[in-house]
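Re: export button greyed out
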Amino acid sequence: MDGLTKKRVTVVDVAHAAGVSKSTVSLVLQGSPVIPPDTQAKVKDAIRELGYVYNRGAASLRQASSSIIGIVVNDLTNSFFAELAVGVDMIVQSAGYVQFLAHSSEDVDRQNQVIASMREHGISGLIICPARGTEPADLKHLVDSGLPVVVAVRNVPGAKLSSLLSDNYAGAKAAVRHLIDLGHRRIAFLGGFSDIEVFRERTQGYLDGLSEAGISADETLVIHSSPSRAGGVDAIRQLLALRGAPATACLSFNDAVAFGVCDGLRSQRLEPGVDFSVVGFDDVIEARTAVPALTTVSVNPQRMGQQVAQLLFKQINSGRAEAEAIRTSVRLVVRQSTGRPLATQEAEIAS
Amino acid sequence: MDGLTKKRVTVVDVAHAAGVSKSTVSLVLQGSPVIPPDTQAKVKDAIRELGYVYNRGAASLRQASSSIIGIVVNDLTNSFFAELAVGVDMIVQSAGYVQFLAHSSEDVDRQNQVIASMREHGISGLIICPARGTEPADLKHLVDSGLPVVVAVRNVPGAKLSSLLSDNYAGAKAAVRHLIDLGHRRIAFLGGFSDIEVFRERTQGYLDGLSEAGISADETLVIHSSPSRAGGVDAIRQLLALRGAPATACLSFNDAVAFGVCDGLRSQRLEPGVDFSVVGFDDVIEARTAVPALTTVSVNPQRMGQQVAQLLFKQINSGRAEAEAIRTSVRLVVRQSTGRPLATQEAEIAS
DNA sequence: CTGTTAGCGCTTTCAT
DNA sequence: ATGAAAGCGCTAACAG
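Workaround output, generated via the alternate export path:
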């Protein structure tokens, strides 16, 4: 009870208190069936009484395996990735693991640092949403260390790693077709930076969607910006300032951009969904109430997080699986703002 | 180079390759100044060549101290807490620590589980944004384990723990005064649940603000709801449906609620900031562009995260500090929607 | 300045 | 069914 002499209580102490030996305690801790119930009870009482806390570090040292999953995210500030991390955490926790989470702030150096740090802590698997500009070379060490790794959301084309990505191409194409069916001909693509694969996939779907409908693309209608709400405001402002035939609809890089586009429209006294059609990619839960008329190509981030975690565990448990590339399907969710509750119409999109 | 025989490379291997001893390697690893540069170089080369990765688990076992900070958040889905975690991470990383992040989904049992798990992993400090309904008893074990802990954002009144909270009372009062100065007399308080301390503090500020201006409070104008965007929509709908003298302004529990209130207003063809004044608490970065006219009582979550991490490190480094309760100041940010760029006016609020 | 030695708390044969 | 002993990879004394 002396505040200073408080030494860490170990299995030995527990064993002593319970009148058994070290290894018996260890076996109880692991729920081994070879220990008789009464002995188990004695040990458990001693544990409670002494306030013993299991030292997982020592255990992993001995067992050469930890129960830690690392996850490094490019930007936690983006709700999509925060939701994804939540989805991952659900699976990780239910598997009895804990989650190391770090975010790289879109900085490749930082990303390498945190990965190194995680490896030093002996993670038994890693999920990574790569920072912009991540090269296969950056992940070289990682992949040939044999650590189970899966890449989520953004691909790193050259790296031989498992990945779970959304079907960006098919989603963008479906969105464009939807807008064309609504009668639009001048359709813009707003937001995002061209140095990530996701952007390229989405713009490709956009371009192919247009050309399949016999509409020739106008490259001035593709406007880059930060993939954030503020970026969306910028992009729509630039679009509205263009001379020439005005666009009447846009596909936004993600939902943050789409929200920004709506903000920008409103500040010009235009009503999203009425004066100008907006389709957003990704689907943060808030989107449902935020802009009733906002159509989205939706990727459920929590579900995606769960899937990616499952893929990782599959890889961990199967020893050494081949790299596996999965595309999660997306849905086109059309919302109408006529009255309440909202009429929504969803369609699963196959590639 | 054989994929199966790949054994973990240890300090011994490195020592062998570099032609020195175990402890020399260890000293190099710790950047000790007693090792001559050329020996250091040899060792570092060997490390690179063998692909050695430091085993921090073994080190912590020996040193009885890890470099892990735990942070458990009630809801990562709420951008405010995601931003807070980012702020924490900045400090944690720059101190050479890594961050264990888990979220409790507002579930006290889950919260206890993850805390236990973190302790088993030997965290050297813990930051906690308590789940709703957390009792001092839930944290009893924790506090008398002597682990440095700081509570953030939400207080747990009975527990003897350091805390970093925003000045909710003063903020709410200032917001109400602002609305009164604008000429409002029927002011509502929307959103949030009354079982958390933050809610009580904010409503108290609201009530005192009213009564100091000689306005008697009308309890039908305090409407509870989930502290989310959807909750805000609900709350404003309920408010507008009330019979009797209509409210002309509201203070929202947080910014998510405020956004929802704006959504709800718009769906009734009312313009926030024109037909009805809205003040939101908390300040997610997006708020700036989202609703230009939205006045906020602003708490910068990233800054708060940094502060809380600093407080924790202070406690870790000073051995055993007394529990310390800090209130971060808040700012009243008034935004006007007249033209662009926005005219904003800020005022720091003292308690 | 560098090598030797003895554990940190746990798991795991191998005896009893 | 339980105990004894060895060792995971590292650091910290202490010798040399």
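The longest strand of chain B covers residues 330-336. The button fix ships in the next patch.
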